């Protein structure tokens, strides 16, 4: 029998793993007659906040709007500078652009591929106090260096909004990613570690006033129904997605543990022989104080297309997150800006299958194919 195809992410498998509970949750919502911002959203907000160690969660329509509303809530306005990285999905920049704020891209750390605190410091010094907010992205499930970023932000009078779209459940120095900055933005896009069956997002913060402001901004600026205290919008999480997310939240810790086991197997198998081959593959680095959640398992090779094709021919999908850094994309182009580490990472990264529906045998199969390619 031919080997089954391996996908980079498998939202259908994630549904099937919890099908009975999800169907029961959907039935419960359908029968309730409450479909937008009701008891399921409130319960999910409470339960997700508890999983974060306390604080407030505000469910919103998607991760992009979670970033935007968090930035607006801390006071970012048109013309303000916001620092972030360029090796992220367009959504991070889109949220900043929606406000009319200015994007300041800073360089990444060569090993971990998340925001470099040293280059952030240079950007903050050069900007002379004009950077209003910093948006570190915990890319691939590996958090940015939050202790250093928070310290720099305080020293330079900037706020911090963590982009946690890929880091549900990750830890930095024992504290959840998302609990370091002024607020954090989550996406529940179906392929995320905590994924809905549709769009969804949330803002997390330990600041009650900030939470109230986000709550107003997500629904027309209302505190009281039909009274807009400030300009707001519609960015609501619906009851069906919240009920499904409650099911998925219950499985998040165990599924992250599965991802860690799969990643450990990749590191063990590929670590043994990666150095011995004629070709070169670099394995992902994990910072000392970080517990990642392996949203992606990302290797690097200057021969990315060759390896990708080799795997594809053997039924193994490998993704490229992200092929073009934001400062080289038409919408956000900054031709004068050079970010060598970011540009090199985008040219070399290859995401291997890592999701909870995979087995160790699947990882062995991918590893064997890569080891064979390395020595070919
Ligand atoms: C790093 C990052 N930021 C933001 C987002 C935006 O989330 P959404 O697609 O829910 O708007 C995503 C998800 O695609 C993401 O991966």
Structure description:
It is a single chain. Helix content is 41%, strand content 14%. By secondary structure, it is α/β, with parallel strands linked by helices. The chain has 2 domains: 11-247, Type I PLP-dependent aspartate aminotransferase-like (Major domain) (Aspartate Aminotransferase, domain 2), CATH 3.40.640.10; 253-374, Aspartate Aminotransferase, domain 1. Helix 4 (63-73) packs parallel to helix 5 (90-99). The structure holds pyridoxal-5'-phosphate (PLP). Pyridoxal-5'-phosphate (PLP) binds next to helix 4 and helix 5.
Quick summary:
By secondary structure, the protein is of the alpha/beta class. It folds into two domains: 237 residues, Aspartate Aminotransferase, domain 2 (3-Layer(aba) Sandwich), CATH 3.40.640; 122 residues, Aspartate Aminotransferase, domain 1 (Alpha-Beta Complex).
Mean pLDDT: 96
Percent strand: 5-15%
Form type: globular
Would you list the SSEs in sequence order as H and E? HHHEHEHEHEHEEEEEHEEHEEHHEH
What structural class do you assign from the helix and strand content?
A: alpha/beta
Main sheet characteristics: 7 strands, mixed
Question: What is the strand tally?
Answer: 14
Uncertain residue segments: none
Number of domains: 2
Any ligands, ions or cofactors bound here, and which?
A: pyridoxal-5'-phosphate
Spell out the CATH superfamily of the largest domain: Type I PLP-dependent aspartate aminotransferase-like (Major domain)
CATH fold topology of the largest domain: Aspartate Aminotransferase, domain 2
What would you say the CATH architecture of the largest domain is? 3-Layer(aba) Sandwich
Kindly provide the radius of gyration, computed on alpha-carbon positions and rounded to a whole number of angstroms.
Answer: 21 Å
């Amino acid at each position: 029998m031919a080997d089954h195809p391996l996908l980079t992410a498998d939202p259908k498998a994630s549904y099937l793993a919890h099908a009975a509970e999800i169907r029961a949750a959907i039935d419960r919502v359908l029968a309730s007659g409450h479909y937008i911002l009701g008891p399921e959203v409130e319960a999910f907000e409470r339960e997700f906040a508890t999983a974060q160690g306390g604080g407030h969660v505000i469910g919103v329509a998607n991760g992009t709007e979670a970033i935007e509303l968090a930035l607006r809530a801390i006071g970012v306005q048109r013309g303000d500078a916001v620092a972030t990285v360029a090796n992220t999905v367009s959504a991070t920049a889109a949220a900043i652009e929606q406000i009319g704020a200015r994007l300041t891209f800073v360089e990444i750390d060569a090993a971990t591929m998340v925001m470099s605190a040293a280059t952030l410091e240079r950007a903050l010094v050069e900007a002379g106090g004009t950077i209003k907010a910093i948006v570190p992205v915990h890319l691939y499930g590996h958090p940015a260096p939050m202790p250093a970023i928070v310290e720099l932000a305080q020293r330079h009078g900037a706020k911090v909004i963590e982009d946690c779209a890929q880091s549900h459940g990750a830890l930095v120095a024992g504290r959840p990613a998302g609990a370091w900055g002024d607020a954090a933005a989550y996406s529940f896009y179906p392929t995320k570690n905590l994924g809905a069956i549709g769009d969804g997002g949330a803002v997390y913060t330990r600041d009650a006033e900030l939470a109230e402001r986000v709550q107003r901004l997500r629904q027309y600026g209302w505190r009281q129904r039909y009274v807009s205290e400030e300009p707001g919008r519609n960015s609501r999480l619906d009851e069906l997605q919240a009920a499904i997310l409650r099911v998925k939240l219950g499985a998040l810790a165990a599924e992250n543990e599965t991802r860690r086991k799969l990643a450990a197997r990749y590191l063990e198998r590929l670590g043994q022989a990666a150095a011995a081959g004629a070709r070169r593959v670099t394995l992902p680095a994990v910072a000392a104080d970080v517990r990642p959640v392996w949203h992606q398992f990302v290797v690097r090779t200057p021969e990315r297309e060759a390896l990708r094709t080799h795997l594809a021919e053997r039924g193994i999908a490998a993704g490229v997150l992200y092929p073009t850094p934001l400062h080289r994309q038409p919408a956000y182009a900054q031709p004068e800006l050079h970010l060598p580490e970011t540009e090199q990472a985008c040219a070399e990264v290859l995401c291997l299958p890592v999701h909870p529906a995979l087995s160790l045998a699947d990882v062995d199969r991918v590893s064997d194919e890569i080891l064979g390619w390395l020595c070919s």
